[in-house]
Amino acid sequence: MQRIGVFVCHCGSNIAATVDVKKVVEVIASEPGVVHAEDYQYMCSEAGQEKIAIAVREKKLTGIVVCSCSPRMHEATFRKAAERAGINPYMVEIANIREHCSWIHKDINEATEKAVILARAAVAKVNLNTPLTPGESRVTKRALVIGGGIAGIQTALDIADAGYKVDIVEKTPSIGGRMSQLDKTFPTLDCSACILTPKMVEAAAHENITIYTYSEVEKVSGFVGDFTVDIRKKARFIDADKCTGCGACQEKCPSKKTPSEFNRGLGTRTAIYTPFAQAIPNVPVIDTEACIKFKTGKCGLCQKICAAGAVDYTQKDEIVTEKYGAIVVATGFDTISLDKYDEYAYNQSPDVITSLELERVMNAAGPTHGHLERLSDGKAPKEIVFIQCVGSRCSDDRGKPYCSKICCMYTAKHAMLIRDKYPDVNVTVFYIDVRTPGKNFDEFYRRAVEQYGVNYVKGQVGKVIPQPNGKLLVQGSDLLDNKQILKEADMVVLATAIEPNKDVRKIATMLTASIDTNNFLTEAHAKLRPVESPTAGIFLSGVVQGPKDIPETVSQAGAAAVKVVGLLAKDKLMTNPCTAKADELLCNGCSSCANVCPYGAISYEDTLVNDHGIRETRRIAIVNSALCQGCGACTVACPSGAMDLQGFSNRQILSEVDAICR
Amino acid sequence: MYKIAKENLASLFALINENNELYLPVQVAGQTNFAAYTADANVDLDTLKTVKSPKDVFFPQSETLYTCNKEDNKLKITPEKLVDAPFVVFGMKACDIKGIEVLDRVFLSDPVDSFYAARRAHGTIVALACHEPEESCFCKVFGVDCTEPAADVATWMIEGELYWKALTEKGEKLTESLKSLLTDADEAKVEAEKSAVKEIVEKLPYSNLSLEGWNGDVLTEKFNDALWNELYKPCLACGTCTFVCPTCQCYDIKDYNTGNGVQRYRCWDSCMYSDFTMMAHGNNRNSQMQRFRQRFMHKLVYFPANNDGMYSCVGCGRCVDKCPASLNIVKVIKAFSEKGDK
Amino acid sequence: MQELINRAKELLADGTVARVLGWKIGDMPYNPEPAYFETVESLDKFVYNGFCGANLSKYMIEASKLEGKTLVCLKPCDSYSFNQLLTEHRVDRDKAYIIGVGCKGKLDIEKIKKTGIKGITAVSGAEMTDACDTLEIDTIYGKKSCSYNDGMLERCHVCKGKEHKIYDELIGESRDTCDKERFAEVERIEAMSPEEKFEFFKAELSKCIRCNACRNVCPACSCRKCVFDSTKFDSAQKANVDSFEEKMFHIIRAFHVAGRCTDCGECSRVCPQGIPLHLFNRKFIKDINEIYGEYVAGAEAGSRAPLVNFDTEDAEPSIVNER
Amino acid sequence: MSHAKNQAERIREISGVNPLKCMKCGKCSATCPAFNEMDIKPHQFVSYVANENIEELVKSDSLWKCLSCFACVERCPRDVKPGKIIDAARQLVVRERGGNYLSADEIPELLDEDTPQQLLVSAYRRYKR
Amino acid sequence: MSVNNEFRPKIVAFCCNWCSYAGADLAGSSRLAYPADVKIIRVPCSCRVNPMFILRAFEKGADGVIICGCHPGDCHYSTGNYYARRRMTLLFSMLDYIGVEKGRTRVEWVSAAEGVKFSDTMNDFVAKIKGLGENVRLGDLRCKN
């Protein structure tokens, strides 16, 4: 049995005017476990807190009930007071007799009676309280960024600038991501490479940043502050320390027919390759599926030509194991597959391309060296049709239900650039809505219409029919004229919906981060914690959280970095002691609790238990208190009552119920 | 000897109920158990065996012992009142009455259980002889004569008439108060009924079960027998056998917080339960084999050892009918004798 | 049955399995008991007939802890329970060799006796080999008979089907026994007034003797220690007293198995007081199906039970008032 | 419930389509091979039902111009299925007039292996006027 | 509990710490009255509410039990109230099935900003429970005296 002290606050007249405070003290003093009861004008004042300290000393209190305002107001205050007085802060309970009583009731008898009941419930709870100590866990002062696009680079740079080590893991041979494939960026039309490349160089040169390209995260264990990650460094077959990046190997490589990933398959590359000229690191990789040496054992030209002797056909994948305090997911996006959209003839005509492919076509380093030409015959197009919302805003299973957000702006950009460079080319844009929220965005779109004469038609395209003469017959709606338009175009550009990178579900599973039905990672709170995953220590940067453009991505990348830095700045993490805990003798190991845990805090271990003399190995739930946030979902999912929540235990809540109902 | 026509039994019960609480077999939701008589109760004398034995009339499944309340700052303890009004149990069978004999050994020996003793003192038992014994019956094995129940009053239901014979002083007294409804009868029909039923009893499959080898002297031998390791396996550790049994007498004492105080009550417990006799140090029987063995060892070895050879099984066969895993005391006895034969 | 025994002997003899979990011939015509057989000879006492209603899947929890594989005979409906136990990591698939045994409906001896048949000494027609038409019953009071279907357990009249959801091999034919609407009884109760509902369940539950047979036989109630036995939750109960505890027990029990109960009907089969306990579980199944979409517990190992799942568009609890 | 509302509800019920899902992209009209023959265009079918302007809709020639090719149903990104709506509108008319227009004994000669069944059903209501 | 023969129900309200408890605080600081019959128990999340707690309240004499949590989609723990919603729906349906009057239990989503809604909800709930009268179908008789 506890030795409980009850302190009833007048709160000036806030409580005392409606609740007979003296009566509460008198009644509560005879409750089981109560050894001290008193009232005071302002319990939260210095003097009030001192009264608690004195009572703790003199009456040897082990538990405290303060009848006062809402615990949301002063629970922390009284816990600290208790701690100063020498008892565990979690031995304090608050009976809310102000917001939930004196302020809403007028009849003094009624309010007093209710105050007594609320106090009794608090006393009943404290009787079952146990001292709790916040756990401590150490923080590894190193962050991992998964994905080396603009989101990952920016997050890494911001973390590194704050003085913390950060590693970037990038799947492809170079960092740079989607942004490196873009030609110009809206709304300022500056060259993408010109603004991205310096950031790539900065990241590569930063003393706090380690870049693992051509690498993938293979395994993640641990929890916030203390993750252990296995990174697979795929064999490049090039010794990066020796390679000078001269490019001679790529010039001589006889296998030249592999479609270039960087150019979206519109051009080809060699078997030994760097994806693009400004790649970082400027170290090629050998594609073993295309390499003649690997396929037939003959060739070996690159090794012969390499002056630095960097080519090593025996190189093996390598696993690097590293510890991290925080992990940022910045895995970005890809365009959706258009296989289900036969009506746009994407698979039938090379002149129907996606907007991302157009970026490559427009780019000086691209397959056409920046000349706008038809990919079928290399002729200059005279009539170009853009189709918006291809696969976005679809409620069927062909597309995505969300708006891809960036298409309206990049289509305006493309239209404008074409009209600027090739004034004789007619550009028609079929749109459903033009969505341009953003600074200088609508102005940008209006410029495309007003200044550059882009023809915007409200209506969707129903069908693109390749003609025998090589033209594309576009059949679309003009809803404002209520007409069906038939237009012969030379090129059709599809504003294809974007979706999270294919690998993200695998990564989310490794990280136990929650993911939505569209494969975007879920935020801890849609409004207030948009860059954090509900899983502690996991942060989101860029399109992995939802469609966004470059400026938004960069802002979010910075926000994620700040959250990471905030975490890494701590030497130790204090964990909420009100976490779930499984009684190993009652646990069935059935996994119900883990199924409802939003934080992936529950795992199972085969544990040797001694159940009243029976020794056996059982599958037992283990709660990681660093991850558990204390919601209690697991406690109800658990049929045997093995899982309980400290600070809000089953018995504590039942005792409150009993006290209220008696 | 008296008799009363079956259709007049309702009046008889009403008359008994005027001066006594009356318990008798009542059907509720398709099942017949002993319950207090009410005018609209669905009395069922045709079902041979009630699901639960009538022991709960004397030893209820749950009964309050005393209540603690807080008065001012003091604790006030109010013992539960003992039964002090006469009551009648109608329709107990010979085996059930034998069961009461077993319970008497436990509760009326020193220290006397005052709650039980009060009920025994105030209760009058009117027994009903068995008419159509069933295949699970084996009362004969324990020396019970189902045609001649040894109660305060014995009755027989023969061709729509209930024959009534007082056997004790209590029985005479009750009979006296019911005279207005009873008519005189001779015993010829009853004797015929008895011998007819006895013939049936001889034909019952369990009637010639041998108890050889089961007595108070075989404790160590039986206790250590490896056979238990096989027999218990299908056991689900439920309390069905215990709770339908007329002789199981174990109970647990628990407290119930009413909000205004505490009621200390006792309720039936089952040696099949994992928390049975759980103590601070743990449990002295922590495997189901041990718990299973306990039940049968108690009935066939420990109890006779302490009670002049009296078994604490009466052969009512309720466990045979009700065990969810089709286990029962007969299978245990047979398994041991088969093993002996080998 | 002989095919089953032969196969079991074979598997036992060649060491594939260390023991056989099946049914042993009883000492009455209708009371075979679940049993382990560890030797080929002991299998002479193996029986599989219409009275082998017991669902053996729960015994596999203990059997999974033993050395070697256990051959377990599962009827189609039992296989759902096994899957559910597998989902909950309570049994070890690698420790089980599952023979899916055919089923032609299982018999309820209580139901047969309720037709007035007393003093049974022999029953023919309950074997699995024949057409399951009529049970010829010898009693000490003469010869009686009862149609197979009239003697069948309630659960067989609403059988989930002849398909085994998990097995290593199949032996024996099954029969379609479903001839009643599964939720008809639940619907009948739902249509009652609150007073009638209350009286119905009061009468049924007043019979409860808290023997825990329903719980202990239930493959979904696989807790090592039930909350109602545990002091930790302050919820321990032993007796059926004063009109509340039996409700608490049965509601919570049904709630704990909601979404996990395969409707195997064992609870109702074993209740010594004949309480139709399946009506609780089936109500939850019906609600789940209607509100959250069809879900069959145990149809597939590893599926996520409805109560540890959600949809953001789920109905609000107020739907109960509208129904 | 007003007559118009009632009729709109009937169309929603028969077609199984929720016209409110339409985002007015016009892809149905863009895709329709009979567009030029129609007075009320496919994308308008949807808004006519949404606005409960059924009287106008059922008077429309479009009802009998629609080929039931279901290109609009296939391509609609919002699962609104204008073709189903027009089909439902036809049914509404047919039901009110109380009969089918194609008699059963005329079917065999019309049957062709490649004919979609849906077309036949639609034909019941369209031809032999 | 009855004074002057007026039926005063016992009502237990489980409120999640992040939304509804704060909503109740707001009702208090806005002086929005509701009957003193309502007593609030603070839980971290509506998903902490075990059906056992609700039955226990009825056992011990409560006449109504209400569970308040964050609006679906706004749960502090992302998903807690979704689980609570399913659990309570099924439990309430079961209570209805065994003959407990509809309306003795309720779930209401109340945000931290909805002081008015909190107070309105409680006023309405108390009125409904008063209409239903004393809970006789779910109590333990031992607690009735």
General description of the model:
The complex is a heteropentamer of chains A (662), B (342), C (323), D (129) and E (145). With 662 residues, chain A is an alpha/beta fold. Helix content of chain A is 28%, strand content 25%. Chain A folds into five domains: 4-128, 3-Layer(aba) Sandwich (Rossmann fold); 142-233 and 318-332 and 503-568, 3-Layer(bba) Sandwich (FAD/NAD(P)-binding domain); 248-305, no CATH class; 336-499, FAD/NAD(P)-binding domain (3-Layer(bba) Sandwich), CATH 3.50.50.60; 576-646, 2-Layer Sandwich (Alpha-Beta Plaits), CATH 3.30.70.3270. In chain A, helix 2 (46-59) packs across helix 3 (71-85) and helix 12 (407-421) packs parallel to helix 13. Chain A is elongated. The mean pLDDT of chain A is 95. Chain B has 342 residues and is α+β, with helices and mostly antiparallel strands. Chain B is globular. The mean pLDDT of chain B is 93. Chain B folds into two domains: 2-203, no CATH class; 219-337, no CATH class. The longest helix of chain B has 19 residues, at 288-306. Chain D contains nine helices and no strands. The N and C termini of chain D lie far apart (32 Å). Chain D has a single domain, classed as Fumarate Reductase Iron-sulfur Protein, Chain B, domain 2. The model of chain D has no long low-confidence stretch (mean pLDDT 81). In chain D, helix 1 crosses helix 7 (82-97) and helix 3 packs across helix 7 (82-97). With 129 residues, chain D is mainly alpha-helical. With 145 residues, chain E is α/β, with parallel strands linked by helices. In chain E, the strands form two sheets. Chain E has a four-stranded parallel sheet, with helices on both faces. Chain E has a two-stranded antiparallel ribbon with strand order 1-2. In chain E, a hairpin with a 2-residue loop joins strand 1 (2-3) and strand 2 (6-7). In chain E, helix 1 (20-29) packs across helix 4 (115-132). Chain E is globular. The B-E interface holds B 256, 258-260, 263 and E 60-61, 140, 142-143, 145.
